[in-house]
Amino acid sequence: MVEFTKEAARLTSTPPAAAYSAPMFGAAPGETTWLRLAVHRDAANDEYEVRMASSTDGETWRWGGVWTLPDDRAPRIGLVSMNTAGATATFDYVRTYALP
User: What residue segments make up the domains of the chain, in order of their start?
Assistant: First the structure.
C-alpha cells in the first residue's frame, strides 16, 4: 500500500519530540508506482497544505487527503520502503519544482 504521513514536533513533551500522525492512503502500488505531492502555502493561516497522490501508470492519479504543516520552516520530504524481510524498493527519480 502507499501511505502518506507527516512528522511534526510534539510540543507537549520536554524536550519537544518528533511525532507521527496516522497515515493517509493512496492507490495500491504496482510494479512501478509514481508519487506526487502538491504543496500550497496558506498565508492566512501561516501553514502549508500538502496533498498526496499516487499512480501506477503516471497518468491517472488517485488523490488523497491533505496534511497541514506550520510554515515556520520549509517543508522536507522523505521516502521510505517497508515490507517483510528481503523486500526491496528502488527510487530512481525524484524531482521538485514550483509551478508558475
Answer: 3-70
